[in-house]
Amino acid sequence: MVMPSQSRIRTKKTRAVGIPAVDLSLGRPELSELILRASEEHGFFKITNHSVPKRTVSRLEEEAAEFFVKPMSEKQQAGPAAPFGYGCKNIGPNGDMGELEYLLLHSDPISIAERSTTICSDPSNFSSVVNDYIGSARQLTCVILDLLAEGLWLSDKYALSGLVRDRQSDSLLRINHYPPAKDVKNSGRDRDRGSGRVGFGEHSDPQILTLLWSNDVEGLQMCQHDGLWIPVPPDPNAFYVMVGDALQALTNGRLKSVRHRAMANSPKPRLSMVYFGAPRLNAWISPLPELVSPQSPALYRPFTWGEYKKAMYSLRLSDSRLDLFKIQSSNKIASRIDCIV
């Protein structure tokens, strides 16, 4: 199984701290301030009183549970994930592994319809359920991005959400199933010291914003700046929001993507449904003009989302991909090329 990088492994207990929570029923000026502060200080927060209907969530949860309980021979008909479809333990093309199985779907309705024929005996219904969930998740993601734009005083309040609303957006839906730990006694001990079975190894999400829902089983952990891991209490009535690499670049490092992982130490199965809001493949990512000044020069060179994805697939899960696009790193690479020439 994949292990977090050695610099972040700690033998002491994970730190139990409060998770930032934002109530979307609050007034808009207060909301934008709270969301910006949580994004700046933590890179993640919990959203309550959101607009996603409970039935939209429960229908997809039911479809996912029905799929993952199938015999392995039937599930494998929906794979292998390359990258879309069914995957088991393998995470990406570079040898990362974890104690999980998953479905990875593109947000495009045509792609979902094609994949549904190998996932469910009623592909039309499955497609409808997935599309409803993606639509609600996209809308909530865009509301959060618009509030961030307000908090950052961007002249174009849709500068961030417009990238996700694009019809050719490369947004994804990932449904993860973490089987229960068989050794309940040991799994509890490992959970207390922040080790044990790794379901999905340490990483940051490459997209703009991540919206995560999970059932009432623990496992999600966030990494603080000091390297200690925060266990995130599950809350099926809420969503967790995470800043992605692309948003870090767009905000010139003001918001930082959060490193996180999923442990699989529980005696109960854990299910998570994760929406990744992303731009179209040929969209350019660069620090927004309002966030660049002589005092805060641009940290990242312009790059396309497709270029970033290519770099992502060439690296291991825990690698810091965004470092490759820092202006200082780019200049060093260019200098080396000039020397060779």
Automatic annotation (TrEMBL):
Entries under PROSITE patterns matching the protein: FE2OG_OXY
Biological processes, Gene Ontology terms: gibberellin metabolic process
Superkingdom of the organism of origin: Eukaryota
Keywords (A to Z) from UniProt: Dioxygenase, Iron, Metal-binding, Oxidoreductase
Catalytic activity: gibberellin A1 + 2-oxoglutarate + O2 = gibberellin A8 + succinate + CO2
Domain Fe2OG dioxygenase residues, every copy: 168-279
Pathway the protein acts in: Hormone biosynthesis; Plant hormone biosynthesis; gibberellin biosynthesis
Pfam families the record matches: 2OG-FeII_Oxy (PF03171), DIOX_N (PF14226)
Start and end residues of each stretch annotated as Disordered: 182-201
Xref: InterPro entries: DIOX_N, IPNS-like_FE2OG_OXY, IPNS-like_sf, Iron_ascorbate_oxido_reductase, Oxoglu/Fe-dep_dioxygenase_dom
Single GO molecular function: metal ion binding
Similarity comment: Belongs to the iron/ascorbate-dependent oxidoreductase family. GA2OX subfamily.
Name listed for the protein in its UniProt record: gibberellin 2beta-dioxygenase
Originating species: Rhodamnia argentea
Gene: LOC115742562
